[in-house]
Design goal:
Thiol Ester Dehydrase, Chain A, twelve-stranded antiparallel sheet, four-stranded mixed sheet, 18 strands, about 35% strand
């Protein structure tokens, strides 16, 4: 009979209330075995935490140092439990896999695609208990940065490669288009894939798809265009050959959104005359700044929505958003948000049965000199729960 070298033991009980004898029975480990314990405090409640104990013991002399303490190869940690519907996730994981793999991300498809999963937190949802557009954009950005960090070419900049860091270069986004079919709810787990490709002669395109972790259904698609800027002069520049050599091995000729479905039309400028609503006095906070010393591109969404009527925010879903970034914004700038609206007749829908969709055009500009920061376009669809 073969000697068991690896084991994974799962206890769906309250370990904190174990008797002393039961604890001894549970944690009695043969020194020749590798054992993984996984326990969750369920007891009829929806607690999303579990206790994981990893043991890699080949003898009593196998001593590791963790946080300055010597231990016998046993590592205890609390890890996130992926919801009530995912009890198989931990049960099926082998001891050889790294802890928190679903949080740290991994490469798939011959390392052309980077994949990472996230739990939708309570502070990432809106009044309707679903994730917001800002949440989705933050997750897209996080996945992109982790893609670079895990690629082996990362420098010391914010998503920059080594050659970019040597030349004081940073990536800046010029345009991003997001299409949302369904917003995840609090506690849901989403899985994000991202990859890159060339964009014309002097840019890079990054695409994403977001799936529901349980159903594998694609719920969001996004595409974006990036260029390089000098960190000190704040001027755009060509991508150096050395940087191209770093990123080209990761290029994948694939699009998340079909060409005919991408919002590539020019975004018209909203003026004082065409705007239906204008919101003034929008001041960036210190926390709105990112590591590239300007306002993070996701922050603009909140300011854009400041000039959208409240009844639209309450009764409609934001199903599509395109942002065209014109210039940087610093903490000292004060902004104005302008929005114009028009009805967008939905295709293949009978008249008088549903309310019309809205298409909004937005502008963020400097309050002092009206210099443009961002142009944007959004599409809003009447929420199904309000259907007649």
């Amino acid at each position: 009979m073969a000697l068991m070298q690896n084991a994974a033991i799962h206890y769906w009980e309250d370990l904190y209330n174990f008797s002393d004898q039961k604890k001894k029975d549970v944690f009695s480990i043969n020194p020749s075995q590798n054992v993984t314990f996984c326990a969750s405090r369920i007891n009829g409640c929806s607690n999303r935490r579990c206790l994981k104990v990893n043991a890699n013991i080949k003898g009593y002399k196998n001593v590791d140092t963790i946080n300055g303490k010597k231990v016998n190869g046993i590592h205890v940690e609390e890890m996130t439990f992926l919801g009530q519907r995912n009890t198989d996730l931990i049960k099926d994981r082998s001891i050889e896999e790294p802890n928190h793999e679903y949080l740290l991300g991994r490469f798939v498809e011959d390392r052309f695609v980077y994949r990472q999963s996230f739990v939708i937190r309570s502070y990432e949802i809106g009044p309707d208990k679903t994730a917001t557009m800002e949440t989705l954009m933050n997750l897209l950005q996080e996945t992109a940065l982790n893609h670079v960090a895990s690629s082996g070419v990362a420098g010391n900049g914010f998503g920059a490669t080594r050659e970019m860091s040597l030349r004081k270069l940073i990536w800046v986004v010029t345009r991003i288009h997001v299409q949302v079919d369904n917003y995840s709810s609090w506690g849901d787990v989403v899985e994000i894939d991202t990859w890159v490709d060339a964009a014309r002669k002097n840019g890079m395109r990054r695409d994403w798809i977001i799936r529901d972790y349980n159903t594998h259904k694609i719920i969001t698609r996004a595409t974006s265009t990036w260029v390089i800027m000098n960190r000190e002069t704040r001027r755009l520049c060509k991508i150096p050959d050395e940087v191209k050599n770093e990123v080209q091995p990761f290029y994948l000729n694939r699009t998340a959104i079909a060409t005919e479905d991408i919002d590539s039309e020019k975004i018209e400028k909203v003026t004082d005359e065409s705007a239906e609503r204008i919101r003034t006095g929008l001041a960036p906070r210190w926390s709105d700044m990112d590591a590239n010393q300007h306002v993070n591109n996701v922050k603009y969404i909140g300011w854009i929505l400041e000039s959208v009527p409240i009844n639209v925010l309450e009764d409609y879903n934001l199903t599509s958003m395109t942002l065209e970034y014109r210039r940087e914004c610093r903490q000292s700038n004060v902004l104005e948000s302008l929005t114009s609206m028009k009805a967008k007749t939905a295709e293949n829908k009978p008249n008088n049965t549903v309310k019309e969709d809205f298409e909004c055009t937005h502008l963020l500009r400097m309050e002092d000199d009206n210099a443009e920061i961002v142009r944007a376009r959004s599409v809003w669809q009447y929420k199904q729960k309000h259907m007649i």
